[in-house]
Amino acid sequence: MTSTQLKGLSSDRIRGSPRLDIDHLECAICNELLWKPVACQSCETPFCSTCIHQWLANNPFKCPNRCRPYTERKCPPFIVKLLSQLQIACFYQSAGCNQIISYEGLDKHEIECGFQSQQCSGCQLQILKKDFDNHMSNCPSMQVTCQDCKLIYKRGDTAIIHTENICLREQLRQLRDECKENKREIYELTLQLNEMRLLNPLIKKIRITFDDFEGTLEKLCRISAEYRGLKWTGITCMHKSYAIQKYIKSGYATSFMPDGSLNIAFFKEDASISVRSSHEKFTFVSVTACAAWRDHLQLTITGHRNSIETNTYTGTLLFGKPQLIILYWKDIDKIIFKSSGGTAHPDIDGPTRTHVILTQLTIGQID
């Protein structure tokens, strides 16, 4: 919307000496020159389109001249013709624009006029449009991002915050973090290889990746108590598409392994997996897990046999990066998972929860 539409078109902006009476070119509502006029079908009185629409919002179906109902029509042609003869000074003449524009070309000019002001997002000053690009390129209050070290700083603080030494030190720190992460991934892969050697031919039969779940594209799916011959409590399945659509900033969205299953499982605070019969036992080989909302989330896993706790593991989970936990607990009939602690991940807005993601479980034969 142009400034003329917002402020109205004053007759003081008419330039030249048109030999016509402008009294009948004024809006009956705002008493300024008609702007983008329309008329009442009954009395043919013209109004600015903005004025009459504001009037009707408070006086539905009623013309200012009391015609009922108000029916809109095009402005009478002779009014349009008279308006087209007017030469108008630009709204931004006070800012330095000396252009005199025809009535019909006024709207386009004011949209493009270089003398309208825009606010700089850095220093918050009002800058003329024609000078805006140059100002943005030099404003000391604008935030810039270094392409080498990714540090974000204000342009005017370059000599203090982003010297060459600081940039190099930040790049070195990032390389060290990247190296540390690569070592962690190599360690995880080594654990997986060791597990594969340990299990050998049984690995495909007892590894659970939740890839056989259907109907999870648009909703969450509770894992049934009979899944894979075990009793599952408090564990839900989620599809990759659902995770990306609903929780794009969470650890859910980044927990899917390359070339892995399109489904993951998760629990909120506690969950369990147990046998269906008291006479059955199984071996809990490993679990791959990560945190959905927090950094440094604590996970405690306990193994049970005949209601007696026989094994315990406590570790810290990463946000959105699954890590392999090898346990190899034999002859148990129940596993209990519990999560606690952790700190809010910096990319997460609002409350965070102690949800744990399970991307894979490896369970030995149920005897």
What are the key terms here?
10 helices, five-stranded antiparallel sheet, Jelly Rolls, Herpes Virus-1, 367 residues, 26% helix, single chain, seven-stranded antiparallel sheet
Describe this structure in words.
Strands 11, 12, 14, 15, 17, 21 and 24 form a seven-stranded antiparallel sheet that branches. This protein folds into two domains: 115 residues, Herpes Virus-1; 155 residues, Sandwich (Jelly Rolls). It is elongated, with a radius of gyration of 35 Å. The longest helix has 36 residues. It contains ten helices and 24 strands. The model has no long low-confidence stretch (mean pLDDT 88). With 367 residues, it is of the alpha+beta class.
Question: What topology does this entry show?
Answer:
Blueprint: H1 3-7, E1 14-15, E2 37-40, E3 46-48, H2 49-58, E4 72-74, H3 77-84, E5 87-89, E6 100-102, H4 106-112, E7 117-119, E8 126-128, H5 129-138, E9 143-145, E10 152-154, H6 158-161, H7 164-199, H8 203-206, E11 207-208, E12 221-222, E13 231-233, E14 236-239, H9 240-246, H10 251-254, E15 263-267, E16 270-274, E17 282-291, E18 294-295, E19 297-305, E20 308-317, E21 323-332, E22 334-340, E23 343-344, E24 356-363
Antiparallel strand pairs: 1-5, 2-3, 2-4, 5-6, 7-8, 9-10, 11-24, 12-14, 13-16, 14-15, 15-24, 16-22, 17-21, 17-24, 18-23, 19-20, 19-22
